[in-house]
Design a protein that fits this description.
two-stranded antiparallel sheet, 20 helices, Serine Threonine Protein Phosphatase 5, Tetratricopeptide repeat, 574 residues, mainly alpha
Length: 574
């Protein structure tokens, strides 16, 4: 909010240094309020700027498929400071940014007066969606927040508001989403590549599940909500997801090819015909493109999949590696994926996988994967020996030269909604076999895995959450596997209060097979011969501080400006 103070100083200087004639001139480089807000076309143009805040590829990275680098699913070359317990109190910034909230509030204040043009209600719905989107980002980072629902001036008393309890903020977010669901058009009639009613429903299931589980598992801690009512949110999550399931506007993408259907969700440039994808971003050469295929194919990107994630995948008999006779051990990548959930084979590269294919020149395979590049440096290095393949497409054209990739990122898909539904019902204690068959088992069926049967769950000695029921453990496992490397894992760990999976633990990689590498290859290993990337840099493992690190700190400067703002647990004010 310091932005408003800086604006006030600048405006004062301008007023003192300018003559009346100058002040009467219209600004040449910004929207003039009296001339704008006339037509629904104006509403559309204004909202276009907000779409850039939705998930997308970066310029030189693997975009959405590196989004789990902040969790126990992946192991980047430089360890995550928050997981390591080394976060510091920022003076300014740190995510405490209200510019987007103000932009949406300005829109929602001005838009109702527009009378010229069609689709006014739809664009109003987009506005409510975006306010919910930006507030949810802040909720996940900071918990309690001031609730601001109008554009503020530099002298507005609301600049000094105190933080409202997190469940008040969550209620307001869900209220905005209900407004959006009412106002937005269905996907069949909404403008192409714009938010529609199904997007808002999917997002509601995400928000409500997050708040419900946060309140359930943080109850009685400094992070708990005042007057916590987890069931209220879990019921909303289940209801929103069930609406989407019953409406049958989307279906799990299953073409009868379990060896590739899952991977085809993530490496295509055009998802317009994909039955599972609710919302996605399109790239086009010469307009907007990225370098994602270089970082997913030619370069390993100085990161890698963790052994913890790999061990989560069941064997083809539906049993975990701790119980299944089908498990072939970890001596080589081919053995790791043998007799395992096919999603694992579609997550990591295995010897023989094509790296580059010249589709424009007859379809010749120009290179194949031989081994993970644990012996290389920089962006060419694979940190763990498990090199990510999810999202990769071996087309030579997409890999060559700067900004030649057009692979589309998925923003919402039905797979997540189905998992939200199953988890919400499991947490409520109302999950039935019919619920599983309408959700998780559709995802398992796509890859040819046996269905999850509630009455046939065997206790896994390696369950991540031994104090919870078998069904909750298996629902969480399914979520981890299906959504691997899509950016959900950190917030899942935080809302589940799962710091025990991190504290005092060093993430590991694959078992190192020295015969596969040049003599003298030096890779840090643990006593059992598994790659141990942080052996020297994090000797005692992650030191995530559960009394402090579940939420981010408010910046010291903001706290000095507004004494009513309380700091988050475990953090000083300055």
């Amino acid at each position: 909010m310091k932005l408003f103070y800086h604006i006030g100083i600048i405006l004062t200087l301008l007023v003192c240094s300018c003559n009346d004639g100058f002040l009467d001139k219209r600004p040449l480089n910004q929207i003039s309020q009296p001339e704008f807000w006339k037509t629904t076309g104006d509403l559309e143009v204004y909202l276009n700027n907000l779409y850039g805040s939705l998930p997308q590829w970066g310029s030189h990275d693997a975009g959405p498929y590196w989004a789990d680098n902040n969790s126990d699913n992946m192991v980047p070359g430089l360890y995550n400071l928050r997981l390591a317990g080394l976060s510091i109190l920022p003076v300014t910034g740190g995510g405490w940014n209200w510019g987007n909230i103000r932009a949406v509030n300005l829109f929602l204040e001005q838009a109702p007066a527009v009378t010229d043009g069609a689709d006014k209600d739809h664009f109003l719905g987009e506005g409510y969606f975006f306010r919910a989107w930006f507030y949810f980002e802040l909720l996940q980072q900071f918990g309690d927040l001031p609730w601001i629902d109008k554009p503020l001036a530099t002298n507005s008393p609301e600049l000094y508001n105190e933080r409202q309890p997190r469940n008040v903020i969550a209620d307001n977010i869900l209220k905005d989403l209900d407004q959006a669901i009412t106002l937005l058009k269905d996907k069949e009639t909404a403008p192409l590549f714009r938010v529609n009613r199904s997007v808002a429903l999917a997002f509601k299931s995400r928000v409500a599940l997050y708040e419900g589980t946060w309140e359930k598992y943080h109850q009685g801690t400094p992070y708990g909500a005042q007057g916590a009512n987890p069931a209220k949110y879990l019921e909303q999550a289940a209801a929103a997801a069930k609406t989407m399931i019953d409406e049958k506007k989307f279906a799990v993408y299953d073409q009868g090819h379990p060896e590739k259907d899952y991977s085809l969700l993530f490496n295509q440039s055009d998802l317009s015909g994909n039955s599972e994808v609710i919302f996605w971003r399109k790239y086009k050469l010469g307009v907007a493109s990225h370098n994602g295929q270089r970082y997913l194919s030619i370069l390993a990107g100085n990161t890698g999949i963790s052994a913890s994630l790999v061990q989560s995948y069941l064997c083809t008999d539906g049993k975990p590696v701790s119980l299944s006779p089908y498990y072939q051990g970890d001596n080589g990548l081919s053995n790791v994926v043998k007799n395992r959930d096919p999603r694992l084979r579609q997550l990591i590269f295995v010897p023989g996988d094509p790296i580059t294919i010249d589709y424009s020149g007859g379809g010749d395979t120009l290179s194949k994967f031989q081994r993970a590049a644990v012996n290389l440096g920089g962006d060419s290095r694979d940190v763990t020996g498990y090199q990510i393949k999810k999202g990769a497409y071996p087309d030579k054209t997409l890999q060559q030269g700067d900004f030649m990739s057009t692979t589309a990122p998925i923003i919402f898909r039905l797979g997540e909604v189905l998992l939200n539904y199953a988890e919400a019902k499991a947490e409520l204690g109302t999950l039935t076999q019919a619920d599983l068959d309408a959700s998780i088992n559709l995802l398992r069926s796509r890859v040819g895995m046996p269905p999850l049967v509630m009455t046939a769950i065997e206790a896994d000695p390696a369950w991540d959450f031994p104090g919870l029921s078998g069904i909750i453990n298996e629902v969480r496992r399914e979520r981890r596997v299906e959504l691997a490397c899509e950016g959900f894992r950190l917030q899942d760990l935080l809302r589940w209060r799962a710091h025990t999976l991190l504290v005092n633990k060093r993430p590991k990689g694959a078992k190192f097979i020295s015969a596969d590498y040049p003599a003298g290859t030096d890779v840090p290993l643990d006593a059992a011969g598994y790659i141990d990337p942080y052996k020297l840099s994090l000797v005692n493992g992650y030191q995530f501080k559960p009394e402090r690190d579940y939420l981010l700190p408010l910046p010291a400067y903001e706290l000095s400006l507004n004494e009513k703002l309380a700091q988050n647990p475990g953090w000083p004010r300055k």
